[in-house]
Amino acid sequence: MKKLFKSIVAVMLCAVIAVTAFGADTAQAATKKMPLKVTMNGKSYTFTKDISKKVKKVSIKKVKKALGKPTNSGEDFWYWETEISAIACYKGTEYSEPYVEINIGEKEHSLSGIKCGMTKKSVLKKLKKYGYKESNLSIEEYPGFSTIDIPLYNDSDFIRIKFDENDKAYQVYAKLHVDTIK
After folding, report:
1. Among candidate residues 11, 27, 58, 89, the one with its CA nearest the CA of residue 182
2. What is the pLDDT of residues 53-94, one digit of tens each?
3. Is the pTM higher than 0.85?
4. Disulfide engineering: 176 pairs with which of 67, 80, 150, 157, CB 3.0-4.6 Å?
5. Which among 84, 87, 93, 83 is positioned nearest to 73, based on CA atoms?
């Protein structure tokens, strides 16, 4: 009887520890997914609905349909650009992986809902809605500017937001490696 009682108490204790370790903020982060969606000139394209998962394939045909004809292209690259913003898709070579670079510099354009001109406070508030805490982000202060890096699914893929001395975003940049670009 004592052995059964001790086993039940041990199981209950483990359950309490497990429940407290899995807090409400962790549960929120798991339920809210942040999309990697770029908006330029009133047109949008979503690379992935969840930035924590790797983008497997980018279809240039679908990107063209969403954003229009690229301003520059070649056999292994496609480039959409405006005055200060750009999206580049590189097919890769035998020595490099295919990847996508997104650089937003205009107030009318956005990346995952983050626009130039937003304050650092409003960006952090938006990221908090997706379950990111300041402790999960890489926030760096430099003379005259600061950055917030949002990690994606591996170390070499990220979103970087640059802020001026007044804590206003002036650049939103993303780099992501993909399996294929067709």
Report:
1. 58
2. 888 999 999 999 999 999 999 999 999 999 999 999 999 888
3. no
4. 157
5. 87
